[in-house]
Amino acid sequence: MQSAAQLRELLGGYASEVERCIRCGFCNSVCPTSNIPQAYMGSRTSRGRLVILQSIITGSREIEFSNKLLDLIDLCFGCRRCLEVCPAGIPIPQIMWSVRSAASKMGLPHASWMLRSFVKNYDKLASLASRFPGLANTLTRSKLGRVLAERLLGIDKKVELPAYIPLRHESSINSQQRLAYFGDVFGLYHEGNVVSGLFSLLERLGYGVEVPRGQRQAGIPLLELGLLDEARATARRNVEILSGYVERGYKILTTSPAAYLALKQDYPKLLDDTNARKVAENTIDAVQLLNELVKRGELELDGGGREVVYHSSCFSQATSLSGAIVGLLNNAGFKVVGTTPRCCGVAGMWGLLREHYETAKQVGSALFNELRDAETIVSQSETCRLWMRSILGKEILHPVEAILKYCKA
Amino acid sequence: MRYKKVSGEDLENLRRIVGEDYVSTDEDELAANAIDAFPGEFHMPEAVVWPGNAHEVARVLAYANENRIPVTIRAAGTSLSGCVPLYGGIVLNITRMNRVKEIAERDMLAVVEPGVIYERLNEQLSRYGLFFPPDPGSAVACTVGGMVANNASGMRAVKYGVTRDYVLALEMALPSGKLVKLGARVFKTSIGPDLTRLMVGSEGALGVFTEITLRLRPLPRKMVTALALFDKVTDATDAVYEIVRTGLDPAAIEFLSRKTIQAVTQFRDLNIPDADALLIIELHGRDEHVLEHMRDVERILERHGAFHIKSAEEEGERKRIWEARKGAYPSLLRISPSPLTGDIIVPISKITDMVAKSYEIAERYGVDMGMVGHIGDGNVHHTWFADRREPGSWERASKANEEIVRYAIELGGAASAEHGIGIEKKKFMRLQHGEAYELMLQLKRLFDPNNILNPGIMFDLEDVMAVELP
Question: For residue A409, what pLDDT band results from cuts at 50, 70 and 90?
Answer without folding.
Answer: low
